[in-house]
Design a protein that fits this description.
By secondary structure, the chain is mostly beta strands. Helices cover 8% and strands 28% of the residues. The protein has 3 helices and 20 strands. The strands form 4 sheets. Strands 12-19-16-17-14-13-20 form a 7-stranded mixed barrel. Strands 7-6-9-4-1-11 form a 6-stranded antiparallel beta sheet, with no helix packed on it. Strands 2-3-10-5-8 form a 5-stranded antiparallel beta sheet, with helices on one face. The chain is elongated and about 65 Å long. 47% of the residues are buried. The C terminus is likely disordered.
């Protein structure tokens, strides 16, 4: 019997993601990968996969899968209802051939992660199975009728007594390390500390756009722009209108607007989960929050 699941519905967006393809910025290729790596790694452990196995990143729920084989499934990230043949189930869970798994709307965040025993075994590109929405590398966004092959299970699922869901706080405090172009701004640390923003509905896997306080440039920098230079994940780029953008996993590898600071990797998962309208403040010069199982990554 072929190990696979069939996609019956996707919701707004469902993507194959692993921990990405860092190290290819010189080719113009962003790192991509799950926006919430700890949630994907946890889901994989719960079904006995290596932490970096490919799973599914599901935006705002709505995914429906039919199992074509017996498999274990874990759903992590924000609290997300999971039903098997219409019956609510706790994660992790088991699917028999023909069982239909349907995910509801997550509460407290945007993206849940689905791991299946054996991992999603689509072809890798540049060492990763991740869908990259900017460059087009990797598998296309899932569509009804897609059949996803699964690998052979190799590990033992890890049980948990309580699966603690991710929840974005009422006010998201984001640490940021100043530079490399903080000298383009008047009192950059003071502006970041005093400013108040909300997460815009114009964000995606490329970056989180913020509305609120406009960051002011030094008088001698007003009206000027930089030649394009390299960008890393977490870069806080400030266009001429002063509205910051925090770049996420599918970001461009170069840009011409000044980068006032960089958000550390451990703080990015919650940014990737922040719904539009979430209040946000920056904390310049402070370390990122630690989350159990956090996957550290870089673009280099």
């Amino acid at each position: 019997m072929t190990r696979a699941v069939t996609v019956l519905a996707t919701g707004p967006q469902a993507l194959v993601q692993d921990l990405g393809r860092p190290g290819n910025a010189h080719l113009g290729v962003p790192p991509s990968g799950a926006l919430d790596p700890p949630s994907l790694a946890l889901a994989n452990r719960l079904v006995g996969n290596p932490g970096g196995a490919a799973g599914l990143e599901v935006l705002l729920g709505g995914l429906v899968l039919r199992a074509e084989t017996s498999c274990s499934v874990a759903v992590t990230g924000p609290a997300t209802p999971a039903l098997v043949d219409g019956v609510p189930r706790d994660s992790p869970l088991h699917l028999a051939p023909g069982d239909v798994l349907a995910l509801g709307t997550p509460v407290g965040g945007l993206r849940c992660y689905v791991a299946l025993s054996g991992g999603v075994d689509v072809p890798a590109e540049l060492g990763s199975r991740s869908a990259d929405l900017l460059s087009g590398l990797g598998p296309a966004p899932l569509a009804p009728g897609d059949v996803l092959p699964l690998g052979t299970p190799t590990g033992v699922p890890v049980g948990v007594d309580v699966l603690v869901p991710v929840r974005v706080p009422d006010v998201l405090v984001v640490p940021v390390l100043l530079g490399p172009r903080d000298d383009w701004f008047t009192d950059p640390a003071g502006q970041l500390r005093a400013g108040r923003w909300t997460v815009s509905d114009r964000g995606n896997r490329v970056g989180v756009r913020l509305t609120g306080t406009a960051l002011e440039r030094e008088p001698g920098r007003v009206g000027r722009e930089l030649p394009s230079e390299g960008l890393v994940t977490g870069a806080v780029q400030v266009p001429a209108d002063g509205a910051p953008v925090v770049f996420l996993a599918d970001h461009p590898t170069t840009g011409g607007y000044p980068v006032i600071g960089v958000v550390p990797p451990d703080a990015l998962p919650l940014l990737g989960q922040a719904p539009p309208g979430t209040p946000l403040v920056f904390a310049p010069g402070t370390p990122g929050p630690e989350r159990p199982g956090a996957a550290r990554y870089s673009d280099s």
